[in-house]
Fold:
Amino acid sequence: MEEKPRRIRIDYWIAAILMFTMAAIAFVNVLSRYLFHFSFAATEEITINLFVWVTVVGSGIAFERGGQLGMVTLYRVLPPRFQKGIILFSALLSAGLFLLVDLYTIQAIYDEITLFQARSAALDIPVWIYYAGVPVLSVFVFTGIYRNAGDRLRLHREKTGP
Structure:
């Protein structure tokens, strides 16, 4: 039997790179404080925003693996003919939630660009750059929701028939 080639997953790579970057920044900052008694001011700003980004990517991975909050109890209680609807309803609610997050984030980006023009304290870069990661990386959340719903519907079809 031939082994299936593994797909390269960009979301896994992004999560790994973000986590590595955060760990490296924290490590360098600890060394700097210990050896030189000097702390880099920008490290906190960078790591907090990278943490937000890795959380968004990680949410997509969690959705795909079924690690999100779901309607499991309702799904199990209902007869099989309604379970398909619960799978779809749960996926739609999840996607709707992240759509709202994206819409509010895009509104905040627009406000930052047009009205406030705030700059970050340590690096003096526009704050909207940090915000922009959320809607961009939400692509992985929507992909994870779609993959999970597809897998669950496939299993449901195998269990109950078409």
